Amino acid sequence: MARRWAALLTGLLALAAAAAADKTTPEWLPRAQAIARGEHHRDATAAAARPQRAPTESFYLTMRDGVRLWTLLWLPEDVSEPIATVMMRTPYYTDPESGWATTWNGRGFAYIEQDQRGSGDSRDDRFQLWRMDGPDTYDTMEWIAAQPWSNGRVFTMGGSANGVTQLAGMTAEPPWFKGMAPMVASMHGHKTVYDGGAFRTGLVTPWMLALGFPDTLLEVMQHEGDTEYWDPINIPGNEHTCHIPGVHQGGWWDIFVNEQIDGWHVLQYDAPDENCRGHHYLVIEPQGHCQYGEWPNSTSTPFFHDLTAYLFYRENGMPIPPDLQARADATDWVTLYVMAPEGSTAGNYWTTLPHFPPATDATYYLAADGVLASTPPVAADNASITFTYDPDSPVRTIGGRELALPCGPRDQREVENRTDVLLFTSAPAAEPVAFVGKMTATLHVATDQADTDFSVKLTDVYPDGRSILWTDGIVRLRWRERVEEPLPVVPGEVYEVHVDLSWTAYVLEPGHSIRVAISSSNFPRFDRNPNTGEPIAQPDGEGRVARNTVFFDATRPSRITLPRVDFAEIPNNYEP
Fold first, then answer.
1. Which of these, 63, 208, 249, 421, is most buried using a 10 Å CB contact count?
2. Contact between residue 349 and residue 573 where contact means Cβ atoms under 8 Å apart
3. Which of 102, 133, 109 is nearest to 119 (CA)?
4. Distance between CA atoms of residues 309 and 150, nearest Å
């Protein structure tokens, strides 16, 4: 049964070699690149008709440590006075035919693209995630500000990887940085790679290998703890470095949505600088990186770009075009798409609000006979269920917040009939119920091994029996608290653990039920836990079968907590 986990590193190196030899482009990569450039919803016909301009200058810009970064600069044809600059930094190669150059030059801005350190044509150093983007952004902006055509104001834009560069750049506090517009971008590097302590192999591994970064992949696998290694790319904890306003776009099914909203929250409410605090727009559409599913009138990218232009015009002291002013006047700080099943009359619309709506905790408790109850358990008996988790036979990932895997709200019935998946289902809703905000699960659990995982899925059970994924999460017992070093796991001891189930804006329709599915794997979304307690980068032993227990009695009430809101708090009041 058991497989040798020590083969992991050898296998990764073999995958890296195969990826380097394979010249075919992964199916998901072109879309990821378009998203990074903020072009995935642009009008293709209009973009093709837009005249393309060759860069005014193409050159290597030298950083403080001597590393050279490939840089493209476009200037408007007539620069009669110093102007501001819009910059995009990327690991996907700069585009000498960038349509954004034409757009921003036409608005009176200089435009710059730059290959991130260790990527594209900036190969003096290796790729280090975004850990060097602070000093590299600072040095690049310092160079820009020193040019005779520059007025010393620099703005940034871009999505996904190109959005993370902006956030990491902010942490260096360059004084020339005046505004940013990250799209579908993580704001917590550690949590993106280690969600609940489990390695997000379905996201991190294919992305790193496709871009040719196997050494960086091995490096991040050696940093499981939330140590200072991650500090440059964790925005929570760096909010004191924010001195600028911003516009942020995400998606409910996006790979980064949880970390993005968490990070936006600390910038909007906790940043000490008043130029940052209270000055960050948030726009969340259904999709983001994941383009699976149908929601009417749901695309946010065009109006997000309008908000971006409005912000940059305003912070540069330029007259604001009436259409951009009108968009800003119609948009409050939090603009959300309220999802619902297809055909819903209660959901699938946009709402714009000054903040996330006030919510009441709706708690649902695991109970006997597979019931998800709205009242807490009263019996003090040893109510529990024990199941067997074999790392050689994990529960397969179907849908979810993915990039290289099939993503989105998919039917889970195919993996719900296993003996290692525990199901708890509520009574059908009698009327539409809205949930907007953060979701969590609290479990009381035990294992007979030195470590294991507990995974949670939340689904919407339709009247016809479909069990459509709503959200998911996981916790690795030895990382049950976000700490620098793992905590011991004592076999047989009961632990209370908390599972982050991300954010939502969703309407449960009448006749629909809530289901909680608990197991110990969700692969390849998360790596398989071998139950040994060993570091994932040093798996010297063999995988072990675990017997895992979930408790749900009065003294150990396992439960989920959802943010229920009144519909009056989320009016249908925004037209994209």
1. 249
2. no
3. 133
4. 18
Residue type at 252?
A: W
Cβ atoms of residues 211 and 31 within 8 Å: no
467: which strand partners? 461
Looking at residue 294, its pLDDT comes to 81
Question: Are 545 and 388 contacting, i.e. CB atoms less than 8 angstroms apart?
Answer: yes
Task: Give per-residue pLDDT as tens, 124-171.
Answer: 999 999 999 999 999 999 999 999 999 999 999 999 999 999 999 999
Q: Is the dihedral of CA 40, 42, 46, 51 positive or negative?
A: negative
User: Which DSSP helix (H) or strand (E) runs through 39?
Assistant: none
Average pLDDT over residues 304-325: 98
Q: Is the pTM above the cut of 0.85?
A: yes
DSSP code of 411? B
* C-alpha to C-alpha distance for 410 and 364, rounded to whole angstroms: 23
Return mean pLDDT, the chain.
93
Report the b/e string of 267-301 with b at 16+ CB within 10 A.
bbeebeeeebbebbbbbbbbbbbbeebebeebebb
Q: Are 407 and 471 spatial neighbours (Cβ–Cβ below 8 Å)?
A: no
